[in-house]
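Run log // design_07
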């Protein structure tokens, strides 16, 4: 049932998605960047974008000659909507002010970011004064209209239990999940229950066999490093040196986990792994 929607065949050219807002003039021809040149534009942050499969960036710089305000529009093609969510989720905060635009967006002082289909769109308004939010939302709406496929948030996010979930804390990690090269396509959400903050984990393998292989490599590595691995109900209980008490179990193509449980709160880890497994089984039946 669970899948990632890829980019559609009839993709527009990325420059064609740049807006033409009334009253604003491009200060120079739009720039485009590919994986090999992205460092020229966002040197320190490029590696993060590349780790999510970045494909192309279009940048338009605009000027309102009457007010002197400046506007920058950046459109990142990430290849598919799941990867677009991944880079977006790595930069948003749960306390951000969210908007109904594209799949999701948020606004903060002088900036508006949103995702639509395979695109991550970032707008920056300089010297826009009290009209900043109005300008940003209007221009963002123009970009959204140009994107043929608006997309949706990853379906696997629906599996995270609602009880205790810190809303909009969910994120997607494409590779090196938990720092292990063999773990990929991981979804992580943060929870707060009884004064304890912890995380739930869903790893999506390509098959039950790959999930089983991932689990074996992880468990073998824990044992080899001297970490105790105990049978739990369900799954396994590990005292991980980095992730605190960790509860983990396979479920078809998925690996489910609860981590960063503190000493004395072990029952919370067991409870949430069961909740996650129940939700997975329930969704699989629908």
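design_07 sequence
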């Amino acid at each position: 049932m669970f899948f990632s929607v890829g980019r559609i065949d009839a993709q527009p050219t990325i420059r064609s998605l740049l807006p033409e807002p009334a009253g604003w003039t491009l200060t120079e021809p739009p720039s485009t960047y590919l994986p090999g040149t992205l460092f020229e534009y966002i040197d320190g942050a490029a590696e993060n974008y590349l780790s999510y499969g970045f494909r192309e960036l279009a940048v338009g710089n605009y000027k309102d000659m009457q007010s002197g305000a400046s506007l920058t529009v950046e459109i990142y093609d990430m290849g598919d909507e799941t990867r677009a969510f991944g880079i977006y989720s790595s930069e948003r905060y749960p306390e951000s002010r969210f908007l109904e635009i594209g799949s999701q967006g948020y606004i903060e002082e002088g900036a508006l970011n949103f995702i639509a289909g395979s695109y991550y769109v970032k707008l920056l308004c300089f010297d826009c004064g009290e009209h900043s939010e109005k300008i940003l939302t209007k221009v963002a709406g123009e970009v959204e209209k140009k994107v043929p496929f608006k997309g949706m948030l990853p379906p696997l996010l629906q599996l995270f239990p609602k009880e205790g979930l810190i809303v909009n804390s969910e994120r997607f990690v494409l590779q090196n999940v938990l720092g292990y090269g063999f773990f990929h396509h991981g979804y992580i959400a943060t929870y707060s229950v009884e004064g304890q903050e912890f995380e739930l984990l869903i790893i999506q393998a390509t098959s039950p066999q790959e999930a089983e292989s991932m689990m074996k490599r992880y468990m073998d590595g824990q044992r080899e490093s001297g970490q105790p691995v105990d049978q739990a109900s369900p799954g396994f209980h590990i005292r991980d040196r980095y992730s605190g008490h960790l509860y983990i179990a396979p479920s078809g193509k998925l690996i489910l986990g609860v981590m960063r449980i503190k000493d004395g709160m072990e029952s919370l880890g067991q409870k949430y792994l069961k909740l996650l497994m129940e939700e997975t089984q329930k969704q699989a039946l629908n």
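The CA atoms of residues 161 and 275 lie 7 Å apart.
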